[in-house]
Amino acid sequence: MLWLRIVKIISPKHNELTKVPTNRTQKKTLRQAAHHLDPTVWIGKNGITENVIKEITYALDHHELIKIKILQVEKKERGINIKKICMDTNAELISNIGNVLTLYKKNTKNSDQEIS
Question: Does the pTM of the predicted model rise above 0.85?
């Protein structure tokens, strides 16, 4: 089974939903499942725009596990872009090989499908 739980943190400063990261075994299973996937979203020379974030969110809502291909940029920029994508979409980075990212976000709307 794949697990990405959303838990509520209760503290004086925080009263928001945050994600609990998947463990090593779960990430391995997700990497195996994503191996044969083609990139769903391509990020070109315009970089990360609102429309790109909307498209990534839409793809994550429908597929849960997606690949994204980013135009070749410097390593520092790529790291910043990856963090921005993960924060804006509330997804978890599963793997980052070259210019291809694999992201996972548990679909809370349609949770009847599970990958073992």
Answer: no
What's the fold here for domain 22-104? Translation Initiation Factor IF3 (3.30.110)
In a 13 Å sphere around the CA of 44, the CA atoms on its Cβ side amount to 2
Convert 59-79 to b/e letters by CB count within 10 Å (16 or more is b): bbeeebbbbbebeeeeeeebe
Q: What whole-number distance in Å separates Cα of residue 41 and Cα of residue 113? A: 23
pLDDT at 7 over 90: no
How many angstroms separate the CA atoms of 21 and 23, rounded?
Answer: 6
Q: Which residues contact 53 (CB under 8 A, 6 or more apart)?
A: 85, 88, 89
Q: What is the pLDDT of residues 41-55, one digit of tens each?
A: 999 988 899 999 999
